[in-house]
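Co-fold these.
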Amino acid sequence: MKKLQLFTLLFSLTLAASAQNNFLLYSFKGNVSVVENNVESKAKVGKPLASTATVKVAAGGAVTLICNEAAMFTFTKAGTYALNKFGDSCRVSSSSVSANYVKYVWASMTKPTGSAGSNRKAYMNTVGAVSRSINNIWIDPRLDTLNYPGGGPEFPLSWKSYSDAKDFDFSLYSSDNISTAIHSTSVNKLKIPIGDIANKMKQGNSYFWTASVKGEENDELKIINYVTKETYAAVLDAIKKQGAAFEAPAEQAYRIGFMLEDAHYLSEAYTYYTKAATLDTANALYRSTLMSFKKDYEIK
Amino acid sequence: MKKPLHKHIGYQARKMHGHFTKYLYERDTIFATIWVFLFIIILGSIPLNLGSLNPIKLGLKDLDMNDMSYSKLGKAQNTPIDTSNIVVINIGQADREGIAAIINKTASFKPKVMGLDVIFNGPRDAAKDSLLREAIQRNKNLVVAVKIETDSSDKLIPTENFFLNNSSYYGYVNFPNDDKETVRYYFPFKKDDHDKQIVLPSFSSSLVKLYDTTAYNKIKKKADSKVIVNYTRNVTERKKQYLVIEGEDLLMDNIDSSAINGRIALLAYVNLSPNDIEDKKFTPMNEKFAGKSHPDMNGIFVHANIISMVLEKNYVKKLPSWVNWLISVLVCWLFMSFFIRYYLESHIWFHLVAKIIQVASAILFVWLGIHLFDRYRLKVDMKMSLLVIIMAVDVIYFYEAWAVWMHKKFNYKTVFKPHHH
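Predicted complex below.
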């Protein structure tokens, strides 16, 4: 009997090990080809692929596959991908609805809902403007308008790239002439410190900036208001006056940081978030807000 | 010596059983239960729409707790992509000439049937109109979309398709709800109120008729009845449970012929951006199951879900109203017995226990409804059961006063004593 059980177990394990994943080429863009049985052919939407197939993605291309009719994953970088190495991507979670219900009810009953002041993302996620055209660069709408009084900590103007490009063009325009850049430079990172361009601007003036993949154009312009020290001092003074009567220094720093971020003084908001986290190191909210802020604005 | 665990559990179970059943067969329990339902009937019969001033009622008007199973509990997350029956072709912003080209190109891959989910409500550019008319006439397996309306003589007619002709297959795409409501039901067929010979098919029914006779014969039996849509698949940025082919890919021959050949090809506008709500409907699959939200599903995927349901014969069964009422009567009776026991014997704990029981039973009944819906595709309305538990607590106070008054007046036998508390 035990031998029979052992045989059944081994047989089942063998079957499981030999089970092949099946893939479906769901969509693609750019140059994508498929190699099956040593024959390379152009990728086609809706084509079923065996796990022995290989997918080749050229620069700028992307391909989305569905494994075993359920798990979806995408290759966005150029390269050659043997599908038999992506068994892990075929796994799908299979917890029951009832189990999820218990977890959901428990989480809902035990997790505090929080408030706007403790969740800067929930509070500020409507910031932004419409965008036009499609290009390979995405600039976070939070950077749509930046008020910069000069000085302060290093703050980067950052962007994301949908392509594999290594070099990017950064351009700065004066507000009255967006056809000719007053400053252009090439960078090999997805950001440029604002301090690097501060000497190209004059306080009290507004400027536009954009970033693009080297050799491409990006019509999406973002604004930098290089405000005077006096303007910033007035804003800061107004914010400081709004505090409660008995406000601890860390609380005040956090509130000022929050309000400065809302007023688009991002570099200065960073200073105050850092100050709050330093003054009250035990406060998880101050720490997590600072970490989240640094992550959002690519501050390293 | 310590009592063994199983005996301890058995003792507690018997004790709890006693709490529920001690007063179960008392006349007071039965009459108090009747009073709960009398209150529900009386309050429900007030001919005033007080709901318009009730923000909770307004907010929850479209709420179905089963929707939570899609948005929060992962129902239908693992439904496999449909690789055998349905393929959706996105016509994007194509004009009539472009749509004609997409129809002809799709037809070249030999789908078994095509459905064009677009309303054409009048002539536009003559040359482009001609191309589209020619494409519709040429492809005899194409079902076009219409809307059903009643004409001036109250007769049911198909409208809003300029290209509809006598030889076209057509189906209506309207749903029996307004644009702000969740699409939960549809009519597979609609009969004229006066002339029963006039029966118009829905878009999905017309497509199924050409694709699978067996499935069609089954849905045909549900003519003119409201059918619950069983949503099993969706297409979002994160989940792809129908194959969607872009019109450009189709025209550029970037398609594997097996993706369309022999299937139902649905030609429609698809846009997965949440900011684009053109032809989008609210469905139970919406990420927010309550409160304000954006419509979440392109109309064509609603039709696709209906077709999948009909082809796979996985209809949702709905418990008849009388069964829901019967369940609520039994629940009310049982809980009334429990509440009366606490009211009379442990009054100091009554409110605390009642509130805990109300919350616990809300959690339990919602789970039961979701479980039956998920596992057995059975839709049970537990709202009434919840309502009677909530009302039972208040009705006890009224019943006590009534029973004591009846006792004084008519020597009515009751377990309640005057000035009990």
